[in-house]
């Protein structure tokens, strides 16, 4: 398995811990940065990870900023991305099972590193259930590509 990871300047320490944790499980990790403590605009790393995921170059992505909000919003602007910000493992698991998330995000100012590891573990272990959920995923894609939703007419 190969994942991409990205962060802003406030989340370097947590990024390094999560990256090492993933690598200790035998997962290959592409780190798009930032690795500098200089102020850094989170859309850059959100975009980079999203492009790697949307392009099929990695199996999924992990994004970390202060809250996880800005960086996940950035990733969700890329077509085909379903990024979810989580503060606990239950949402992480369900986000994969029901929403087929391809990026998980969290905030270093919100949760500790042990909770972040649990979130990543649940997300990686979960499998998309398809079935009725695919109808909704298809609707998300319809909104994304056409800015319209036939079912809402
Ligand atoms: C940086 O101060 C902070 O705004 C950023 O890390 C993140 O929380 C944005 O959503």
Report on this structure.
The protein is α/β, with parallel strands linked by helices. 46% of the residues lie in helices and 16% in strands. The chain has six helices and five strands. The chain has a five-stranded parallel sheet, with helices on both faces. β1, α1 (12-24) and β2 (28-31) form a beta-alpha-beta unit. α2 crosses α3 and α4 packs parallel to α5. The radius of gyration is 15 Å and the shape is globular. It starts with a strand and ends in a 7-residue tail after the last helix. The model has no long low-confidence stretch (mean pLDDT 98). Bound molecules: D-ribose (RB5). D-ribose binds next to α3.
Describe the secondary-structure layout:
Elements: E1 2-7, H1 12-24, E2 28-31, H2 42-54, E3 60-65, H3 69-76, E4 83-85, H4 89-97, E5 103-107, H5 113-125, H6 132-146
Parallel strand pairs: 1-2, 1-3, 3-5, 4-5
Helix pairs in contact: 2-3, 4-5
Bound molecules: D-ribose.
D-ribose (RB5) binds next to helix 3.
| Overall pLDDT metric | 98
> Element order, helices and strands?
EHEHEHEHEHH
The strand count comes to 5
Sum up the overall morphology in one term.
globular
